[in-house]
Design goal:
A: alpha+beta; Arc Repressor Mutant, subunit A; 2 domains; two-stranded antiparallel ribbon; 5 strands; B: alpha+beta; three-stranded antiparallel sheet; elongated; Transcription factor (chain A)
Chain lengths: 117, 174
C-alpha cells in the first residue's frame, strides 16, 4: 500500500499526531501526547500505530531522566536536497568507502561554499 | 508507471542516474507496475538486452529491484521476473545523508586544524608541511605559494553539518 493510502486510513487523532511529528521534524513521546492534549496511553497507542504503518520512526531514548520514545518522520519525508551542493550529488553515492579527503569531495565542498551558499 | 511521487523528486532522478548511468537511465526512470522480464523491458524501451540487464543488476545490488526465477516448462529455460522496489529509495538516501554527515565532520576537523598554501597559477592547494618542503614554491610552475584562508569552506561545512544533524535528529538518535 502506498503512503497516501495508509494516510487515508488514519483516524482523526492519528492524523493530527502525524502532522505534529512532521511539523516538529521529531518530538519525544512525552511531549507528543501533551501537545495533542490527549492522555499518555492514548498518545502511546497512536505513536505505536503510526510506527507500525511506517509513516514515522519510533526509537527508544532517555529524555529529562525518563525512558521514552523519540518520534520522527519516516525517511520519505526527509529533505534529500541536503545531499546536493549546487547541482552536484554527494560523491559517496555508489561508492563503498568514504574518503573525506578525496578530490571528488573537495569539488563538492567548493560547490557548496561558492555556488550553494 | 509506478512510484511517480518518488520519481518526481529531482534528487531521486539524479541518484538513479548516478547508480545506473546514462544508458541504464531509461530502465531506472520508468519502473512498470508488477513483474517484468528483461526482454520485455528491452523491447519496450528499444534498448540492448545487455544494457537492460546491467541496469537491473545495479538496481538489485542497491536493494531497488528483486527477481524471481521461473522455468519454462516447454523449453526448460529460466526466465527472470523482475520487480522494482523503489519504496527502499528513501531509506537508501537517508543512509547516504548519514554517510555524507560523517565525511563532513571528519573533513571539518582536517580543515580547521591545518594551514593551507595555494599556487594561484595552477590552483593547487598544499598543506603547510608540504609547502615548506617545496620552499614555498609551486613544484609545477615555480610560482610563490601564498597563504590561503579556508574560512568560506569551513563556514559552508559548518552550515551543512548543522542542517544535516537537525534533519536527521542526529543529536537525539545518534
Amino acid at each position: 500500500m502506498s503512503a497516501t493510502d495508509l494516510e487515508a486510513d488514519l483516524t482523526e487523532d492519528e492524523r493530527r499526531g502525524l502532522e505534529l511529528i512532521r511539523e516538529t521534524r521529531g518530538i519525544h513521546q512525552s511531549d507528543f501526547w501533551k501537545q495533542l492534549d490527549i492522555g499518555s496511553r492514548k498518545g502511546s497507542r497512536i505513536a505505536e500505530r503510526l510506527a507500525e504503518t511506517g509513516l514515522i520512526k519510533r526509537s527508544d531514548t532517555v529524555y529529562e531522566g525518563h525512558n521514552t520514545y523519540f518520534l520522527e518522520p519516516a525517511a520519505r519525508d526527509l529533505e534529500f536536497s541536503l545531499l546536493m551542493a549546487g547541482d552536484m550529488l554527494s560523491p559517496y553515492i555508489g561508492e563503498e568507502e568514504i574518503d573525506p579527503k578525496s578530490d571528488a569531495f573537495s569539488q563538492w565542498l567548493m560547490n557548496l561554499a561558492y555556488d550553494e551558499y | 508507471m509506478a512510484f511517480e511521487d518518488l520519481l518526481g523528486d529531482p534528487v531521486i532522478q539524479k541518484y538513479l542516474h548516478e547508480l545506473v548511468g546514462p544508458t541504464g537511465m531509461p530502465v531506472a526512470a520508468a519502473p512498470p507496475d508488477g513483474e517484468v522480464t528483461d526482454e520485455e523491458l528491452a523491447e519496450e524501451l528499444g534498448l540492448e538486452l545487455n544494457d537492460v540487464r546491467r541496469a537491473l543488476f545495479i538496481l538489485y545490488e542497491n536493494d531497488l529491484a528483486t527477481y524471481r526465477r521461473v522455468r519454462d516448462e516447454d523449453s526448460g529455460w529460466l526466465t527472470y521476473l523482475w520487480t522494482f522496489e523503489y519504496d527502499n529509495i528513501p531509506e537508501n538516501l537517508e543512509e547516504e545523508m548519514h554517510r555524507l554527515l560523517d565525511a563532513l565532520e571528519e573533513r571539518q576537523e582536517y580543515e580547521q586544524n591545518h594551514e593551507f598554501y595555494l599556487c594561484e597559477v595552477c590552483s593547487i592547494r598544499f598543506e603547510f608541511g608540504e609547502a615548506m618542503d617545496f620552499g614555498f614554491e609551486c613544484p609545477e610552475c615555480g610560482s610563490p605559494l601564498e597563504s590561503m584562508e579556508n574560512n568560506r569552506l569551513v563556514d559552508a561545512m559548518n552550515r551543512r553539518v548543522g542542517e544535516l544533524r537537525e534533519e536527521l535528529n542526529a543529536d537525539v538518535t545518534g
